[in-house]
Structures are given as structure tokens and as C-alpha cells.
Amino acid sequence: MRIVSGAAVGAMRRFNRFYTGRIGVLQEHLLSSPFTLVQARVLYELAARRKLTAGQLVDALQLDPGYLSRILRDLHARRLLARRRPAADRRRTELTLTARGRSAFEALDRGSRAANAALLAPLSAAQRRRALVAMRALQEILTPAAGEPPPRPRVSLRTHRIGDIGWAIELHGRVYAKEYGWNAEFEALVATLFARFATRHDPRAERCWIANVDGERAGCVFVVRSDEAPTTAQLRCLLVDPRARGLGIGRRLIDESLRFARAAGYRRMLLWTNDVLTVARRLYEAAGFTLLEQSRHHRFGHDLLGQTWVREL
Known about the structure:
This protein has helices at 6-22, 37-49, 54-61, 65-77, 99-120, 125-142, 164-180, 184-200, 249-263, 278-286, and strands at residues 81-84, 94-97, 155-159, 207-213, 216-225, 232-240, 268-274, 290-299, 302-312. The chain is α+β, with helices and mostly antiparallel strands.
């Protein structure tokens, strides 16, 4: 799956609301005709392809079969639609427009052309070219290539930049509150740890990474020198945005942290977590960390079992 920012989703929803209102599809009947938008689309498909089965219409329009069946019954009752079983295959039912149905479609088609011409008429020639180029581009981008699987998300890691620290703090507070019910005490702790890193870290021995998915921030982690000993590194604040889970981002962030720690001359790495974070603990175990010690505590609004894990480098 690909991660999509809330800003991008919001922008597309605003465009959808604007465009559907602008072309009048929210009205009960399309273009002052006796047809709804879906009925008009069924008439269009039948007019364009002459003969279709109900199954082909379901595939073409991505409609619920029961919903389509009700539409077809209505069109048939209005004598706009004819059904026939070809002699070669009596199991199939072919759907075609009657003369009355074709006449109704042609009137609807003329109305649609006139309505679209009215939208374009006030525009200058340059504005029309821009609008048509944008429409073609949007159609091409949103049309999947036939027979091709969707492209895999591009995952990349980079060191932190301006703005990343604030984003990481917000992500921690929001995700842990939603998934574990942790209170503002946890967000405050994360803010303190990140602020300390941002203001005092040694770039040669301490580093923060941001995982991107198709250019959007999706995860974070940082490594600092442990207070325990100068040869011990500490892994802190590993988190992957829930929308980007399943892409191996957590493991990549841990592996990058381990590579950096070895190159920086550390001999071991520590991390602190809680036993309720089962997915993270499985990642630590898979990366070679072992449980060093654990103790119960009450923090973030809950009774928890805190754990310290260690890995020799």
C-alpha cells in the first residue's frame, strides 16, 4: 500500500465536491432529464457497445449486481431496454436499447454536450487548452495500466531535516493515544527526548533517520550515546505510521541504526520499551536484541511492564 498524506486526501475531496457540484451530478435527475446519473451511465454503455450482458455492465460500471438489476428492471418497464437470449447460448441474456431507449439516450447525449459546451464557453482559448490538458493528465494518472500490478511503494531512509522533529513528536502522541490510550505524559516525554537530541546531539556519534514512502514521511528512529557508557548506543523513538505498516520500514530503521552504531565505534546498543508494544518487540528480537531486565511502573496513565533490551555489536 502507499501512504497518502491527509493534505492530499483533503485536496482531492475538495476537488470532488467542487466538480460534482459544478457539473450538476448531485441533482436528483441528470441534466433535467428523467434519469439519474447511474441510469444515464447504463444507457451510455448500452448505446456505445450495442449488446451487453448484466455481468459486463457490472464490470464496466463497478456496480453492485442487485442495484444494477433494479435499474435494468426499471428501464425495461419503461420500454427503453430489450432482453434476448441468443440461440447459440441460451444461458446468456443480451441487453440492448429499444428504439425508444436510443431516442432517450440521444436526447440525454445532446443535453450533456450542451452542458459541457456551456462550461467551456466562458473560457479563453488558452484556458480551455490548460483545462483539457489537465483533464487528460488526471485521466491517464488515475487509469491503471491493463494487466499491470500497481507500482510498489518506494521506501527510502534519510537523516532528519527541519520540520521532522515536530512531525515525529506529533506522530508519537497521536498514534500512542489512539492505539494504547496513553496520555499527554507520553507525548511530553517524547518531546523532551527529541528536543534534547535536536539541540545537543553529536553528528559523528548520534543520528536520526526519517523513513519516506513515495516522498511522504512514514517512520522515524534515532540513536544517541547512552548515559551508561561511552561505548553503548541507545535506540530511541522507533515508530512507523500505521498507514505505512507492512512495508518493512521498522526493520530497515533498526538495521540502519545498527550499521551506524558499529561504524561510530559503539560496542553494544540498548533500548527501552514496554511489553504491550508486541510488534516492536518482535522486531527487536528479530534484529538480535535480547531482554536484559524488566520492571513494573505506572506511566502514561497505565500500569505497564517496562523492558530494557540489549544487543552486542
